[in-house]
Amino acid sequence: MTLISKKVILGLVVFLVLYDNFETTEFDPLGYILYCPCMGRFGNQADHFLGSLNFAHHLNRTLVLPPWVEYRYGESKSVQVPFDTYFRVEPLKKFHKVITMEDFMENVAPFEWPKNQRISFCYMARGTGDTCSAKEGNPFGPFWDTYNVDFVGSEFYGPLHYDTHHHNMTNLWREKYSPSKWPVLAFTGAPASFPVQQENIHLQKYLEWSDSIEREANSFIKNKLPKGAFVGIHLRNGIDWVRACQHIPQSPSLFAAPQCLGYQSEKGPATADMCLPSQETIIRQLKRVIKNINNSVNNNNDHTIKSVFVASDSNHMLEELKIALQRMKVKIFKYPESNPHIDLSILGKSNHFIGNCISTYSAFVKRERDIKGFPSSFWAFPTHKNSKNNKIKHEEL
């Protein structure tokens, strides 16, 4: 067989595969939205996801579910984990049209987003040159490289923005970027505000853990924790967080602070203890929660707190908590492996959750629990001030 014949046959095979995909794939005539979740770790990406889901909903374009960007020890580039590794896709379809990135790139992109039409969207030029520099730096480059995406141009959409709840912004986007001319809007970063807008918090109800995450979390609770109720706590205390908390005096609405302080800071400014609670604060507050719960159930053995589950990015304080709660006969546990998503799932199932007001990781748990009607609280919040000396008054046990 000649070289030309081989090329002809190969070309025919490729054509038949693409044609078969074309015949079986339903395309959205109103277009698609892609974006790189390139800011922060999971908590930040989850905030951005809810906003992006709302943005796609208002524009009535299919949202391409991006992978979760992770940074693993010892690896110089980010790792892209498919969206459905952690969350189910079907529940999201109850709210809006979605498709995974993998499905889109394989079955839709060859027709709706050919290589010579791939334009990156950004508010204004970034990086070097008068472009979006969509692949400049980590995780931007590794993210798009995972799907063999290169861009042939840039589109600056400013002064448009993502707040489609106000300012007639939905119509402005539709007028400027009609699906007939722009079938795909591929954003350099998430088309969403940070932290998540108050109007978008309810979208958390469409995020359901994947079967594998649910199975692992339920198995741990059933087989590792003592029979009875448990409190879940999140301790954010890694060195990066310690440094971030130093900015609280200048940035009282840092990160997820609005979740407890309000979006207009109507409940006061953040404090250092909210961001990085002391060991004294953690133990005192945890004891108080356990005591209040046990008293409320009249020491019913099946409903009293028997254990505390700790999730942390650094110091779980296992020994300190074990000693502090020994007289209350409450045991302390952590998940044996480093798996923040299973941690999140377990925290979401606890009888009471104590989180960090400033952390978007804690915010994810709080939103999930609010939707289910489960109780939660935050370290060192609310602050109780003594009117005479304006100092924080600690409640005694």
Describe the protein's architecture and organization.
The protein is of the alpha/beta class and 397 residues long. Helix content is 36%, strand content 14%. The protein has helices spanning 3-24, 42-59, 101-112, 140-145, 169-176, 211-223, 239-245, 258-261, 272-275, 279-296, 318-324, 340-349, 360-372, and strands at 32-35, 62-65, 68-70, 79-81, 98-100, 119-122, 153-156, 184-187, 229-235, 305-312, 331-333, 352-355, 376-378. α11 links the parallel β10 (305-312) and β11. α12 (340-349) packs parallel to α13.
Which helices and strands appear, and what pairs or packs with what?
Elements: H1 3-24, E1 32-35, H2 42-59, E2 62-65, E3 68-70, E4 79-81, E5 98-100, H3 101-112, E6 119-122, H4 140-145, E7 153-156, H5 169-176, E8 184-187, H6 211-223, E9 229-235, H7 239-245, H8 258-261, H9 272-275, H10 279-296, E10 305-312, H11 318-324, E11 331-333, H12 340-349, E12 352-355, H13 360-372, E13 376-378
Parallel strand pairs: 1-2, 1-8, 2-5, 6-7, 6-8, 9-10, 9-12, 10-11, 12-13
Antiparallel strand pairs: 3-4
Helix pairs in contact: 2-13, 6-12, 12-13
Kindly estimate the percentage of residues that lie in beta strands according to DSSP. 5-15%
What is the CA-CA span between the terminal residues?
87 Å
Largest sheet: 6 strands, parallel
Helical segment tally?
13
Q: Provide the gyration radius in Å.
A: 24 Å
Order of strands across the main sheet: 5-2-1-8-6-7
What structural class results from the helix and strand content? alpha/beta
How many strand segments?
13
Helical content, roughly?
Answer: 25-40%
The helix/strand order is HEHEEEEHEHEHEHEHHHHEHEHEHE
- Global outline: elongated
Contiguous low-pLDDT stretches (5 residues minimum) are 13-18, 386-397
